[in-house]
Specification:
- The protein folds into two domains: about 1-170, Ribosomal Protein S5, domain 2 (2-Layer Sandwich), CATH 3.30.230; about 190-390 and about 400-505, P-loop containing nucleotide triphosphate hydrolases (Rossmann fold).
- It starts with a strand and ends with a helix.
- It is elongated, with a radius of gyration of 27 Å.
- The protein has helices at about 40, 45-55, 80-90, 120-130, 140-145, 160-170, 200-210, 225-230, 240-250, 275-280, 290, 310-315, 315-320, 360-365, 370-375, 390-395, 405-420, 435-440, 445-450, 450-455, 460-480, 485-505; strands at about 1-10, 15-25, 30-35, 65-70, 105, 110, 115, 135-140, 155, 215, 265, 280, 285, 295-300, 320-325, 330-335, 340-345, 380-385.
- It is an alpha/beta fold and about 500 residues long.
Length: about 500
């Protein structure tokens, strides 16, 4: 007899519906799974066999063939266990067929028949909603996470026996409810701890307000890393749509807490990371650090020490907001809209200007590690100098402006941007395309002339021109004004053109 059960396979950070077709007929006892299964799916045969027998059900001593359709899509992971087990029971007439067509199942089985959680519950729930299925059955630990998606009834079960009772109508759990987002963590790193570096503090505030990329250049110990790690404290909370996207990525890689994300991610990979580790890849493509930083911050400390291949691989995602990974004649799309906050030294020896021992050739070789196209995609570049000793010890009781005050200004600026873009795909000024820049940044002719010298000198590319206008728009939003003025453009140009000046002076 043939039975069909719906489940879902994870592809990147998306899900694809899979029909588990189980056929049981007389013949030599054998259990075959076809449809491009990986090792974890093939091993499901033994888990299903033991789980059925230890739960008090008969495992048919017949020829069992399970097909995972569509057969040309690779299936990976243990989330197919529950669908395979119910398919075997339905094909062997131990559970009723009625109602199987309106629900989807996913879950990993233990040998004793209990259900273990699986990654990607949010993604699977989104797929069930798109497919028009009425109910989704998941392990109890995944129920609150899957319930974040509206449009499908999510039920949590803890064992194969409960699943059979649910299908038979003798037991029914209440629909799962999403858990409340976790409260914000108090006492995080605060900008009030930073002494001096007013220019860098201003750059971080502008970057947070518009979602712009930042590069800080300076000798060791001036506060580059300290400033970068305080950026999450001034970022606005994610919108609901952004929170769902963050939760989806975290769920797929197993980093989710089962709740809707309440904070933007902050990722800080070591400079020895490979290009696939940064961008994503593997035989079964997995998200890289740029996807884990989606809608958040990617902090690259010691930027010039990263491999050239890893840095150059960042160029396309920084523009497109996503990355395509080609593996095994298939393309997986990962979201990757993130802020880059980078820090590096001005020269290889990283000493103060008076103690520097680098010659011109060594400096030029060091600077070539940061290509022009990569620097052109960074909106703000600021130079940090060592804080005088008297500035560190004087007025130790007088704290600088705290993160909470800066965050209030950032949130107000982001609110203006949300109202300006009216719920479209653009959520911040850094995401504006050329058409949006022309529409929302209307400059008077005398203001456009401010950028002409830099364009004619070759210091400002066409991409840099648009990024300067986006930056000026953010500076105006921080002041709460609609019209971009000369001072906004001049400040934006100072951060854009400061890149070449800072590197040339090093």
């Amino acid at each position: 007899m043939l039975a069909t059960v719906a489940t879902f396979a994870i592809e990147g950070v998306e899900s694809r519906e899979v029909a588990v077709e189980v056929d049981v007929r007389p013949g030599l006892p054998v259990f075959t799974v076809v449809g491009l299964p990986d090792a974890a799916v093939r091993e499901a045969r033994e888990r299903v066999r033991s789980a059925l027998q230890n739960s008090g059900f008969d495992f048919p001593q017949q020829r069992i063939t399970a097909n995972l359709a569509p057969a040309d899509v690779r299936k990976a992971g243990p989330s197919f266990d529950l669908a395979l087990a119910i398919g075997v029971l339905a094909a062997n007439r131990q559970v009723p067929h009625e109602g199987l067509g309106a629900l989807a199942l996913c879950g990993e089985l233990s040998l004793g028949g209990s259900l273990r959680p699986v990654p990607g519950a949010v993604v699977i729930a989104e797929g069930a909603c798109r497919a028009g299925l009425q109910r989704l059955i998941v392990p109890s630990e995944n129920a609150a996470e899957a319930a974040l998606i509206e449009g499908v009834d999510v039920l949590g079960v803890s064992s194969l026996r409960q699943m059979v009772e649910l299908l038979g109508g003798s037991w029914s759990p209440p629909p799962a409810r999403p858990a409340a987002p976790p409260p914000p963590k108090p006492g995080g790193p605060d900008l009030a701890d930073v002494r001096g570096q007013d220019d860098a503090r201003r750059a971080l505030e502008i970057a947070a307000a518009g979602g712009h990329n930042v590069l800080m250049i300076g000798p060791p110990g001036v506060g580059k890393t300290m400033l970068a790690r305080r950026l999450p404290g001034i970022l606005p909370p994610p919108t609901y749509r952004e929170a769902v996207e963050i939760t989806r990525v975290q769920s797929v890689v197993g980093l989710g807490s089962g709740r809707l994300a309440a904070e933007r991610p902050f990722r800080a990979p070591h400079h020895t990371i490979s290009a696939p580790g940064l961008i994503g890849g593997g035989s079964v493509p997995r998200p890289g650090e740029i996807t884990l930083a989606h809608n958040g911050v990617l902090f690259l400390d010691e930027l010039a020490e990263f491999s050239r291949a890893a840095l150059e691989a960042l160029r396309q995602p920084l523009e497109a907001g996503h990355v395509h990974i080609m593996r095994g004649q298939r393309s997986i799309r990962f979201p990757a809209r993130f802020m880059v906050v980078a820090a590096c030294n001005a020269c290889p020896c990283a000493r103060l200007p008076g103690d520097c021992t680098c010659n011109e050739a060594e400096r030029a070789r060091y600077h070539r590690r940061l290509s022009g196209p990569l620097l052109d995609r960074i909106d703000l570049i600021c130079t940090l100098d060592a804080v005088p000793a008297l500035g560190l010890v004087a007025d130790v009781t007088q704290a600088a402006e705290p993160s909470s005050a800066v965050r209030d200004r950032v949130v107000a600026a982001r609110r203006l941007q949300v109202e300006r873009f009216q719920g479209g795909p653009i959520t911040c000024n850094a995401a504006m395309n050329a058409r949006s820049v022309r529409r929302h940044v209307a400059l008077a002719p005398e203001l456009r002339s401010l950028m002409e010298p830099a364009i004619l000198a070759g210091s400002l590319t066409a991409r840099g021109h648009d990024r300067t206008l986006r930056l000026a728009r953010t500076i105006a939003d921080l002041e709460g004004v609609e019209r971009v003025s000369a001072r906004h453009v001049e400040e934006a140009l100072s951060y854009r053109l400061g890149a070449r000046a800072a590197l040339a002076a090093a």
